[in-house]
Amino acid sequence: MAINWFKYSAPSTFYGLAGKLIPFFAWPAAILFAIGLYIGFFVAPTDAVQSEAYRIIFIHVPASILSMFIYLIMAGYAALGLIFNTRLSSMMAQALAPTGALFAFISLWTGALWGKPMWGAWWVWDARLTSELILLFLYLGFIALQASIEDPRRADKAAALLAIVGSVNVPIIYFSVKWWNTLHQGATIKMSGTSMHVAMQQAMFMVLVACWLYAIAVALARVRSIILERERNTQWVSELPEVKYEDGGAK
Amino acid sequence: MNKLSLAGLLGLVVRRDLLLAMRRRADVLTTLIFFVMVVSLFPLGVGPEQDMLRKMASGVVWVAALLASMLSLPRMFSADYADGTLEQMMLAPQSLTVLVLGKIVAHWMLSGLPLVLIAPVLGLQFDMSTQALGMLVLALLLGTPILSMIGVIGAALTLGLRGGGVLVSLLVLPLCIPVLIFGAGAVEAVNSGMSAVSNLALLGAFMIFALVFTPFVAAQALRISME
Questions:
Q1: Going by C-beta distance under 8 Å and a sequence separation of 6 or more, which residues neighbour residue A183?
Q2: Nearest CB to B221 within list A148, A161, A168
Q3: Which domain holds residue A34?
Q4: H or E segment at B97?
Q5: What's the ipTM?
Q6: Is A66 inside a domain boundary?
Q7: Which residues in B lie closer than 8 A to residue A149 (C-beta atoms)?
């Protein structure tokens, strides 16, 4: 049997698939958040040096990781859209940008909350903090450029180019720890093993997976809205049950 | 019609842009005056203590140079876009990448080079030492072309948009931050008696990297904007 691999690259078919997939990502995300944060806040032992204040890392670290990963994925989708001229890829890039910006913001916010008791300052001009701030600016630039171009196809392509250029920045974030010798902690989780307690690892891992699932669920929900907005004049949108119902209800 | 060589095309574009700029000197001067003004505002804002001024001089000059180069970016393509010249240039059977490179060179000569030349005077206002002044000029000489090269991408992407001037700063400034860090760092290194070679080497590497990729990327951006 021949499988049509490209069936779901059309917005009209993906719209339905995305709607069906959302619960499969949203519910596990909620459950894992609850368990992960419970372990992180109540089960994991108190840190010898940083006492209770360290617990914010269970939100801070996953948010930071996600903010960087989402940028790469967004740039990847944008590049796909630019190269193969597929509409759905550009829509996915557009849908991912606000989530990435949100994670970057959460990362900076929780970092500031952690920094006050640890370093005695809300903000220090450390390389990683600064890079994360630049990442937030890059997200905002992407969103602003996309929003200010009225023709959606031109907006997609222009924003895609910007995302690709900006992704040069993500490796700089990663290597900044090595480049500049600063206040920020070095990596605790290394490939050769870790100095963390098992419960801490579990909590961190669960919240990280929960963040992933949340990001996917939210991106799918947002891409559905974008599809509806852009394809509102097409036949298949007007035949959707929810659209018909809305029309009927209004009249 | 005989086909121009690439160098010939490059020279033609640069000469044309310089000529046009000389017909409207006010534009070039505005950028330069803006630069001088921003730098001069800092002592008024933070106080006239010589020690503090000497410490922050390189950073202030670099930030002002960054802002001044943003100021002139929207003008890079807008006039050509408005009167249709840009469209003709893109239709011409010549390399668009080289054309963009010509625009970059002209932009740097009109907005970057004047800043480099006047920076020592501004550095004297901040009581910088001779060595630090020399390093400032050298770092600016390496760094300002990168600002033009990154900026041209932003200028091409925001071509013909409402509020393009603010938007271009929003897009380009974050990308310019490494240049700022290493440019100001070079002067900082001289002040603290260390070698500035690593900073200059990184700036040089950035410049070569940008020189290879940005004209091509900006040409693609122009194609997207002109579709």
A1: A119, A124, A126
A2: A161
A3: 24-42+54-238
A4: helix B96-107
A5: 0.85
A6: yes
A7: 161
Within a domain: A251: no
Averaged pLDDT in 10-residue chunks for chain B of 227 residues: 76 90 86 91 86 86 91 86 88 88 92 91 87 91 92 90 82 85 84 83 89 92 87
**C-alpha pair distances (Å), B67 with each of B32, B101, B118, B144, B193:** 11, 22, 15, 11, 29
Contact B80, B112 (CB under 8 A): no
d(CA B74, CA B156): 9
Among partner residues B158, B167, B175, which is closest to A165 by beta-carbon distance?
B175
Give the nearest partner residue to B170 out of A144, A149, A153, using CB atoms: A144
CB contact under 8 A, A157 and B153: no
Q: Do B220 and A161 touch (CB under 8 A)?
A: yes
Nearest CA in chain B to A138: B174
* Total residue count of chain B as it appears in this document: 227
With respect to residue B1, please indicate whether it lies within any of the assigned structural domains. Answer: no
Whether A40 contacts chain B with CB within 8 A: no
Backbone region of residue A29 per phi and psi (left: phi > 0; alpha: psi in -120 to 50; beta: other values): alpha
